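Researcher: I'm preparing a figure for a lab meeting and need a structural model of a single chain. I don't have an experimental structure, so a prediction will have to do for now. The sequence is pasted below. Please return the structure as C-alpha cells so I can convert it later.
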Amino acid sequence: MAGALVAGGVVGAAFGEVFATLHETVKHVVGHIIMFKSVLKSLESTLDAIAPQVQEIRELSKALDRPEKETKSLIEKMEKGKELVLKCSKIKRWSWNYCFKAYSYSIKLKKLNNAIEKFCQINLTVQNTRTGFETLTKVNQITTAVSDTGAKVDLVLKEVTKQNSESSKKKKFATRTLSCAVSRPRDYFVGLELPLKELKKRLSNKEESLLLLTALGGCGKTTLVKMLCWDEEIKGIYGENIFFVNVSQSPNLKAMVQKLFKHNGEECPEFQSDEEAIDQLEQLLNEIGQQQQPILLILDDVWPGSESLIEKFQFKIPYYKIVVTSRTAFPRFPYRYNLNPLNRVDAMSLFCYSASLQDRDESSYIPEEYIEKFVSGCGGLPIALKVIGGSLRGHLAGFWLSTLTKWSEGHSMFDSDAEVLNCLRKSLEFSADKTILKEYFMDLGSFPEDQRISATALIDMWTELHEPSENDVHAIANLHELHYRNLASLVMTRKDATEIDDCYNEDFITQHDVLRDLAIHLSNQEPVLQRKRLIVDISGNKLPKWWTEQKQQLITARLLSISTDEFFSSSWCNIQAPEVEALVLNFQTRNYALPEFVEQMVKLKVIVVTNYGFFPAELSNFQLLRSLPNLKRIRLEKVSIPSLCNTLVLLRSLKKLSLFMCNIGHAFGNSTIQVSDSLPNLMEINIDYCNDLVELPGWLCEVLPLKKLRITNCHKLPLLPERIGNLTNLEVLRLSSCTELSELPGSIRSLHKLSILDISDCLSICKLPKHIGELHSLTKFYMKECFKLRNQLPSSIMDLQQLELVVCDEERAKLWEPFKEFLSNLKVKVAKKDINLNWLPK
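Model: Understood. Here is the structure written out cell by cell.
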C-alpha cells in the first residue's frame, strides 16, 4: 500500500506538471491558429475550468488505488496533446494534404478535450468534485485499517448505494412521463462546443430570463439545445425540471401546456381556453419555483408570427429560464445568440465524416481539390455538409468529379439533394401578408457571389418592382425582415445614419452562398424565356446557348441581371427584353460599355451598374439611357462617366440619382443646357465617396424639385455654391465627413422646408451661418466631431423653435447650453463614438 501511495504521489505530481505545460502551450497558440480556433478555444476553456483544481488533484492522487490506470494514460495523452498543438501551429494551409491533416488533428484535439473532461469530472460542481476525492481518501483509510474485511465493506456499500439509487429513481419518476423529455442528440456534431459553453454562460446571467437562439435552418439549433439539456452541469442545476416543447408552424397552446402537465406527473386538465391553460401552467411552475427548484423551458422551432405565444410563457418566477430556437431573430426579444455556420476546419471535419473518408484505402483515394470544392460549396451549413457528404459516400473519384462538373455548369446541389432543399424551403414559408418576402429574397440572387450588395440598390429595385406606392418605406421594412429571418445580413457602417433620414447609402447586405444558390435555383424553375427574373453569369465572352440562339424570341423577365468577369470584352449580342423594369449589371473590367439593347427597354424603371473590380472603370454608351421614358432610378458604383448632365436632362421621369465611389469631375462639368424645367421629378441626389469632387456644378442648383441632397465622404469639396439657396424644396441636406468643407453658405437661410441638417465629421467647419435661425422647419441637427466649431453659436439659433434634436459630441454640447431655456422642445444628445471597420472591403 505504501508503494502505491508513493507511486500515486509521483504520478500526481507528473499530472500537474504536464497539465501546466499543455495549458501554457494552448494559451500561447490559440489566438494565432485560425483554422483550429474553435477546437482550441474549447480545449482552452476546459483547461481554464480545471486549473483551480489541479493542485487538489495532485495531493489527492496519493489516495487513488490504481494511479497507473487512471492517471498515467491521461498524462501520456496530454504530452502527445502538446506535440499535436504545436503541429497545428505549423500546418500550412496550402500544403497538399491540408484537408486530411486538419480533419485528423481536429478529431485528436476533441478526443483529448473529452478525455480531460472525463478524468477531472468538470461537468460536476467543484464541491461535488472535492467531496468525491475526500470520500475516496476516507474509504482508503478505512480499507487500510480493516484490510481483512475491506472487500466485504466495499460490496455492502455498493449494494446499499445501488438500492438507494433505484428506490430514489422509482419514487422520483413514478408519475412522470416522457411527453416533454429531451431525446439525446444522435448525430455526429462538430463546432458546437463553444456555442454550448456560451449558452451555459448566458443562462447563468440573471438578467436573461429568455434567450433566443437564432440561425438559418440546418445550422444545428435543435441539436445544440438538446446538447444543452443533456449536459451534466445543466442537469445538475435543473434536475428533472427541464421541459422541451416543439412549437412548429401551427402551435396548439392548450396541447403544449397539457404535455407540460403530463411530463410533470400531473393530471391533464381539459382547458376551455388558451388563457386558462396559461394560468394553470403559471400556478404549476410557481409551485416548483417556491421549492427553489430551477426550471428550464425549451421552446423549439418557433415560427414568425408566434412571438405573442412566447410571451405567454414568460412568468415572474425565481430560477425560471426560457430558451427559444427560431430561424427568425425576433426584434422584441433583446437577448439573442446567433449560431453561425461552421468554420473551415469544422466544416471539413463534418464533411469528411459524412463521406466516410476516414474508412477509405489508397485504391479509393479522393483528390484533395475535390473535397475542398464540395466543402466550399456547402458554405459551412451542417445540413448541406451532411447530406452532400452522405451522397458521395462510397463513390469513386470519377463520380465526385462528375458531380462537381454539373455544379460548374450551372446545376445546383438542390437539383439532386431534396433534403437540403426542403430544409431551407421552410425558411421561405411566409404568412399570407408576407408572401412578397419570397420575391425579395429571390431578387438577392441578382448580385455576384461573395460580394457585398448595396442596401440602397436593393431598396431602389424592390420599390420599383414590388411596391405600387413607389414608397421606400415598405422595401426598407422588408429588408429588415429578411435580416431578422437570417435570410440575409444587414451590415451598417454608420448606425446613426438610418436614424437621420432612413438613409442606407453606406450600408450593405451579405448573404450565405447556399442561400444565394437557393434564390437562383427557385428563380430558374421556369424555362429561360418565361422567367420573370432572369439571372445570367457570363464567363469570359462565352454567352449562354439560349442567348445566341434566341433570334426573335422575346424574354418576358421583369428583372434582368447580367454578371461578367474580368475577361469580358463588352461584345454584346442583341437581346429583346421589352418587359424588363429593373436591370442589374455587374462587371470587373477597366472598361465597360452598356449593352446597346438597353436602348429598347422602354419599361425600364431602375438601373444598377456596379464595378466589382479593384480599379474604377470607364463607362461608355451612357447616352443610351436618353431614350428610356420610364427610367426613375440610376445607381452607379466605381465608374467614370464622360458626360452625365447631357444625358440626365432628357430623363424627365428620373426621381433618384446615386453615385458611389465614382470619378465625376468631368461628368459634372458645367452644362449649357437649362435644367430648371428638364428634370421635373428628380427629388433625390446621393453622392458618396467621390474623391475627385472639388466643386458642385451650377446646374445642380437649378433642380428645383430636389428634396434630398446627400454629399458625404467627399474629402476634397471645400465649398458649396451660393446658389444652393435656390433649392427651396430641399428637406434633407447631409454633408457628413466632407472634411475640407470650411463653411456653409449664407444662402441656406432660404431653405425654409429643410427639416434635417447633418454636418457631422466636417472637420474644417469653424462657424455656422449668421442667419441659420431662418431655417424655421429644422427639427434635427447633427454636428458631432466638428472639432473647429468652438466659438459661440449665432444668436439666431433662438429662432429655431421647431428644433427637437441636436446630436453632437461633448464639447459641442456645451455650446448649446445657453439656448436650452429658449428652445423648450430641444434635446441635446451626446453621441457615442462609433468606431467600426464595416466599410472596409472583405
